[in-house]
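re the bet — no i am not wrong, look at it urself. input seq straight from the record:
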Amino acid sequence: MPSLQPFLVSLLIGTAATPLVGVVGAEAQTVSQPGYSRSTKCFRDEYREEYVPGTKDRPGYVRNWTEKVEIACSGSSTQASTQKSQEVDIDNNDCSQGSVIGGLLGAGLGAALSRDKGRWVGVPVGAAAGAMVGCQVDGG
């Protein structure tokens, strides 16, 4: 455990150098007006200590006090759920016009690019590919 010793020493020095923080209690304050918004703020009292070094003539001492600090409120899910609106994502994109136009253009392009017996395959494949591209362009 010799490798752990420097870590523990630095941890001990860091703990002694920082002021001590303790939680005394938490309290909530709600502000509301009839017909207007409502807000809740939560606070807690933190206990703090600071060592004031002394001199030869005057010894050092520990100074302590409490501070009121604002914290995040826990259990405020009821307030958040009432403020959220019930929105449902509905996919109302209709790409039927783009599919028809794309299919016609694709079939024409397939007929123009294919030769002889390949037209039997080129026209339907062009129509299907054009319908898919037309649907995507139309917003589907």
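see?? The radius of gyration is 36 Å. told u. also The chain has two domains: 4-31+38-74, 96-138. so pay up
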